[in-house]
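name: query_chain
kind: protein
chains: 1
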Amino acid sequence: MEEVVDIVVDFEDYFPSMMERYGAEGLVTELCNGFRLLMDGERGLITFESLKTKSMVLGLSDLKDEEIACMLSEGDLDGDGALNQAEFCILMFRLSPGLLMYAQ
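structure:
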């Protein structure tokens, strides 16, 4: 039997305030900057290895491998095990319930 791992991450949604401050175009620019910060420079994708390494640099060294894998799988729409820029941006919007008010 496969073990099920429940992972809870405490997340504060800053995207609505960023939308107010920068507008839609500015928010997308910041998301793209975040993607570039986390991506593997050679592959142009956020990989398990790049996310693990960069999360440590950002002070998130307590993330477990299972949590990192879960983050990637949550946004990996094409099943390649990594996130491209579009998948990353889609995931960030999906994780921000506060941005729903701007979609209306």
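note: The CA atoms of residues 35 and 85 lie 6 Å apart.
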